[in-house]
Each structure stands twice: as structure tokens, then as C-alpha cells.
Amino acid sequence: MREQRMDVIVAGGNVVLRDQVCAVDIGIKDGKIAIIAPRLAGEAGKVIDASRKYVIAGVVDAHVHLNEPGLGEWEGFVTGTASLAAGGCTTFIDMPLNGVPPTVNLASLELKLEAERKSRSRIDFAIWGGLVPDDVGELKALAQAGVAGFKAFMSSPGDRGEDAFRNVDDKTLFEGMHKIASLGHVLALHAESESIVSKLTADKLSAGEVTMRDYLDSRPPEAEIEAVKLALDMATRTGCKLHFVHISTSEAVDLISEAKRSGQDVTVETCPHYLAFTDEDVIRIGASAKCSPPIRTDKEREALWQRLANGDIDFVASDHSPCPPSMKQSDNGNYFEAWGGILGAQSTLELIVTEGWQKRGIPLPVLSRVMSAAPAERFGLRHRKGAIEVGLDADLAIVDLEASYVLTAEHLKYRHPHSAYEDFEFGCRIEATLLRGEFVYDRKTANGGLDADHRTGGLRLWPEPSTSRMG
User: Are 467 and 433 in contact (CB under 8 A)?
Assistant: First the structure.
């Protein structure tokens, strides 16, 4: 009996499934995974040879800052999504923060979508809405328009003038949680105590203590821990589903894990930079590694890896926060003045595989889950994204686990090619990325895939609110 003709077969690879790694082929039809089996014999329009490579589900990066509208000179959809694709990412969720205006109402959401229509995302995407003071009344309309969830800052994200995204006070946070709970959505929180951080920062600046070590000390673990405690308490009272972004301390992870066990609907992410670097690395690297919350000690880094391996950290996201190089500079060595954000969208998968599997022996299905399946589940995309499984979109990263290399600026696809990961030695390399069965990145093509094989444009996803509780 003649087998069904596939559009594409990815053949000969070691395929990372939800619970195992198997030497199987992947048959793709109409952009979906149609069959997973050894040595597919059916005809195909194209066969992609993945021999001696590993095939991993495309990354679902739930924490990306692309700065259109208004700040496209920092990073926009064109270069931002090219770098995500080069990093094996096939779906991202764009944060509401660094646009002018920020995405806090329907009008600003439409401006964001218009910017994407002009630039065209290379990969699939969804959009976060923002919770800020005086805008609680905008949440329902944003939810109906299809945002993936809402983001709020418990500490100041920095003042860039009238259109700046503002942190919430306790009243706004509590009212916002009530409203978001009624909408069935998730609230993502940047959890640092503004009272602690602002006081320590003022003390440092008044004393002229402005080194990188001073900056790190101005945002201690206690600021994160106290904010997490407050948010969990408010969520208990309001019934709001929570997601904590870029958690940097094991104690905060433990508090969130305890809340899960008590029945709260809450998830937690960490970022590759907290798993790659230590505070001493930040001092050595300088402003390129400045972020908030800041990178912690070696002991804290290893504690985060342990919790990831144990399943206490739900997923990893890049928190790609780009800017021009000039914003990473400061006068007279004042590191408080430098922009706080790490350019990392292109390095997530390679970093997690290098540090997690090759150095620490964490199984590849566990690592694939924290990069892809778990965020897809949390934000209502499980029916399409997050795993290599029949019926899901054929979103795949083909990775050579024998190709080590040292990252340089020449490898980077960002609008401004600089990163804290420069000079980092990766133990693997992404060879190609497929979105719904078509190339969006191929390392072998001219210009590293920036112009070639860009046949598939990204789609805006309209996720349904997730109702599952992740434990």
C-alpha cells in the first residue's frame, strides 16, 4: 500500500520527544507533524538530512522585549526575530515594556501590530499586555483582543519620560489581580521590592558608591524574596494566576514551589544568564551583563540548576532586552547609569544544552520541556506548540551536539551585535530552524540565514487562557 506523500521528511536525526530521545524520522504535511517513525519510506517533496544531529522542539520564548513601535532602533521585529530563529526559537511572546507607547491599552496594541505588519515577524508570536497604574480598566479590552497575559513591575523599570512603563503600587497590584482573575488570565510579575531597592540605590549614589559590585549589592536577594511573598499573599486573596519572571534566587523558587503545593496556580521562570554566569562574571564582563534582578553567586547558580533538574523551575526564557551599545556605557564608571538588560535571544537553546546536558547531565527531554513544552502549556498554546508530537506544528531546531564554538559579535543577528555571551564557548550549534515545516534559519546559507529561506512568515497567535495548573 502506497504511503501518504509528505511535504517534508526530517530524516536520520536523534529526536527529542517529551520523555525520550529516539532515532526516528519526522514526516511533515501542511505544516504539521503527521508521522514520527523509523526510516520513513514515503515520498516527500523535500528530505532534510539530520544524520548525527539532534532534533529538538522549537523554543517557545515567553519573555522577549522587541521595541517597536517607537524604539525600533534598539531592536525591532526584523532583527529580533531573525536572531530568535537563529537561536532555534519558533514562537515568542513580546513584552509590553519598551515600546513608545507601551502596550497597555487597545490603541497601543494596534500600534504594536501595525509595526509587526510593516516589518513582518520571521516566527510565530503572541503579545503581553501591561498592568500599570490608572489602567486597570483597560485590561478587559486587551484580554478580548487576545493578549497572552499581563505583565507588571513591582519595582521601577526606569523612567524614560511620559510614555514610560510604570511600576504598580500595592493598590493597583491588588485591584489588577482581582480583574485579571475575573478574566481568567495570568499576571506575570517582575518581583523586586521597590522600597528595598530604591532605598539601597539612593544610599549607594549619595555615598558615591557606583561600581558594578555596588549595583549588585543594591538589589539583594531579600528584595526579590519579599516581593514574591507579597505577590503570593495577594494572589491567595484574589485567586489570580501568577507567573514570576526571571527569578534569580533559589529561596524565591522554594517559596513558589510551596505555594504550588498548597494549591496556588503559579509558575516560575529563570533565565539563561542566571544559569550561565556568577556575580564575579558580571564584574569581569561589565555592563553587558547588567540586569535586574542581578546575577547572583556561584552557589546560587548551582542551586537554580538543581531546582530546574528537579522540576521546581517551570521554564526558561531569554528576557532578551536589547539596546544600542552607547546605552551600556556610563560616565566615570557609574554602573547605575548603564542600561540594565541582556541581549540573549539567540543563545538560549545552545546555552541550556551546553550547561544543562553536556556539563550537568540533565536529560534533553527535561531541558526541552523548560524551553518549549511548559511555556506553551502555560500560555494556551499546547494544541499547537512546544513538543515534537503528531498533530502539532512542525517547529523544529536541528542541533549539532558535536560542534563547539566560541561566540563572537560576527555570529550575532541583533540590530546591535553585542552580548554578555560573547567569548562564551558553546558545546553545540544550531544548524537549522523550521517553522511549520519550512526553514526560517539555515546556518549553511548565505548570510547565515538572514535573507535565505525566509519563505514562512510568522503568525500572530491568539492563545486561549490556560486552565491547567503546573506542579
Answer: no
Residues 61, 107 contacting (CB under 8 angstroms): no
Look at the alpha carbons of 270, 275, 276, 278 in this order and tell me if their dihedral is positive or negative: positive
pLDDT of residue 269: 98
pLDDT beneath 50, residues of the chain: 1-2, 446-454, 465-471
The residues, any chain, with a CB within 8 Å of residue 110's CB and separated by 6 or more, are none
Q: Which domains does the chain have, with CATH numbers?
A: 6-55+392-406+426-449 (2.30.40.10), 58-378 (3.20.20.140)
Q: What is the pLDDT of residues 4-19, one digit of tens each?
A: 789 999 999 999 999 9
DSSP 42: S
DSSP letter, residue 313: S
Pairing verdict, β 124-127 and 89-94: parallel
The per-residue pLDDT for 162 is 65
DSSP lists the bridge partners of residue 89 as: 59
Write the burial class of residue 24 (CB in 10 Å: 0-12 exposed, 13-18 middle, 19+ buried).
Answer: buried
Burial state string for 283-311 with b = 16 or more CB within 10 A and e = fewer than 16: bebbbbbbbbbbbbeeebbebbbebbbee
Say how far apart CA 342 and CA 327 lie, in whole Å.
12
3-class DSSP assignment, residue 298: helix
Q: Compute the distance between CA of residue 120 and CA of residue 118 in angstroms, rounded to an integer.
A: 6
In this predicted structure, what is the pLDDT of residue 458? 83
pLDDT the model gives residue 470: 33
With a CB cutoff of 8 Å and minimum separation 6, the contacts of 182 are none
